[in-house]
Amino acid sequence: MFTGAFRLVFLLCLLGIVVHAQFRLTLHRRKIGLKSYSEYSTALNQWREQFHRYKTLKATSKILKAADYGKVKLLNHMNAEYYGEIFLGSPPQRFLVVIDTGSSDLWVPSKQCSFFNLACWIHNKYDHTKSSTYHDVGKEMRISYVTGSMVGRIGEEEVRIGGMLLKNQTFAEAIEEPGMTFVFSEFDGVMGLGFSELAEYGSPVHYNMYHQKLISDFVFSIYLNRDEKDSFGGEILFGGTDETKYNKTTLRYVNLTETTFWQFKLDGMKVGDLKIDLDDVLAIADTGASLIIGETEVINKFYTTIGASVDGADAYVDCDKVDQLPPVEFIIGNQAFRLEGKDYIIKVKSYIFWTKCLIGIAGMELGGEEWILGDVFLGRYYTIFNVTEGRIGFADRLR
Ligand SMILES: *[C@@H]1O[C@H](CO)[C@@H](O)[C@H](O)[C@H]1NC(C)=O
Ligand SMILES: *[C@@H]1O[C@H](CO)[C@@H](O)[C@H](O)[C@H]1NC(C)=O
Ligand SMILES: *[C@@H]1O[C@H](CO)[C@@H](O)[C@H](O)[C@H]1NC(C)=O
Ligand SMILES: *[C@@H]1O[C@H](CO)[C@@H](O)[C@H](O)[C@H]1NC(C)=O
């Protein structure tokens, strides 16, 4: 086990924005993938069972009525990262990938990663020489994230996600990875769920699910649990919504302004007596970002209103005062989306014996770039991403 304070960079998106917080993290030694033959064959048998069930379902054209088809359980790391399990290749190689609605490519670390790629040492690595379904596309992919670049080799593979088998999925095996976030992360790679317009190469996984008729409704729904002690970290459901997980009467839709990011107009912000009208501000729904990010000037007014103490890039409140914090409302298309104090606070173990209450809404010099509504916002709602309609539905989540 390894502990140490370092700067965890929260944000995983393409915009060029960084947020830091001083953190203490516990790094668990991880089991590296499926090791023995018996583990492989167990996994394979599980997949076979699921496919069999899927075929039966398809025959009766009731895709998605089954309990688990299309669902991926998520792991929640400190309310800052949500990731799920996927398998690449034949026999399947296992990876944990961040669910990222702020990008559109799939990538995992490569067995052939560079010696200087630290992240690669301690994570699951994809080995194309061990897969019979690998095709080399013969091209390189380079994605600039906030924290650095991912450089990888593009291939096509069979990918297994939530009981579905995707053929010919483009992905990159990363030779270089974007910065320290990936060294200390519990996840191996990234699964982008943005629009295909944003993809560096090929189609994102949800496009292939739809085009290969594994799902009939071009939609996915995300539930992020904000109770980091709960073993149920959250869930993503491809092809539909899980009505047991949200209150239908509270469902509201937001139209997108364009289909690259999941992006819409943000009209204003309200907290206590402070009401801020925002002109020409766009925001994106980004599960790959932990926080809400807004223009510094606006966010500083917000901090003053709630009485937060600001320390460099971070703002805190006394943990005893969280219950007395005023709610904040984000105004989107004449609708108010409200977060209570407990929703916009992230409890951070700063030093061994005490906890700090970090405000999950941070300021950046955005200079007209989009605001980011990350997990702090999305965790409050059950979120329905409908590709066909180009709109997002937000409903109160249950459980
Ligand atoms: C995958 O690619 C192969 C070879 O290009 C092609 O024959 C096959 O039809 C493709 N399958 C799907 C489901 O797109
Ligand atoms: C769903 O929302 C409505 C409207 O806010 C509320 O009256 C109802 O009690 C909620 N139902 C549940 C199960 O929380
Ligand atoms: C969203 O778009 C639909 C269809 O274009 C339109 O009817 C509706 O009024 C829009 N909603 C808002 C809040 O702008
Ligand atoms: C997504 O949009 C399509 C097209 O309007 C619609 O038929 C479908 O019901 C929507 N799915 C969900 C879950 O809202």
UniProtKB/TrEMBL annotation:
<protein>
    <submittedName>
        <fullName>Putative aspartyl protease</fullName>
    </submittedName>
</protein>
<comment type="similarity">
    <text>Belongs to the peptidase A1 family.</text>
</comment>
<dbReference type="InterPro" id="IPR001461">
    <property type="entry name" value="Aspartic_peptidase_A1"/>
</dbReference>
<feature type="domain" description="Peptidase A1">
    <location>
        <begin position="82"/>
        <end position="395"/>
    </location>
</feature>
<dbReference type="GO" id="GO:0006508">
    <property type="term" value="P:proteolysis"/>
</dbReference>
<dbReference type="InterPro" id="IPR033121">
    <property type="entry name" value="PEPTIDASE_A1"/>
</dbReference>
<keyword id="KW-0064">Aspartyl protease</keyword>
<keyword id="KW-0378">Hydrolase</keyword>
<feature type="disulfide bond">
    <location>
        <begin position="319"/>
        <end position="357"/>
    </location>
</feature>
<feature type="disulfide bond">
    <location>
        <begin position="113"/>
        <end position="120"/>
    </location>
</feature>
<keyword id="KW-0732">Signal</keyword>
<dbReference type="GO" id="GO:0004190">
    <property type="term" value="F:aspartic-type endopeptidase activity"/>
</dbReference>
<feature type="active site">
    <location>
        <position position="100"/>
    </location>
</feature>
<feature type="active site">
    <location>
        <position position="286"/>
    </location>
</feature>
<dbReference type="InterPro" id="IPR021109">
    <property type="entry name" value="Peptidase_aspartic_dom_sf"/>
</dbReference>
<feature type="signal peptide">
    <location>
        <begin position="1"/>
        <end position="21"/>
    </location>
</feature>
<dbReference type="Pfam" id="PF00026">
    <property type="entry name" value="Asp"/>
</dbReference>
<keyword id="KW-0645">Protease</keyword>
<keyword id="KW-1015">Disulfide bond</keyword>
<dbReference type="InterPro" id="IPR001969">
    <property type="entry name" value="Aspartic_peptidase_AS"/>
</dbReference>
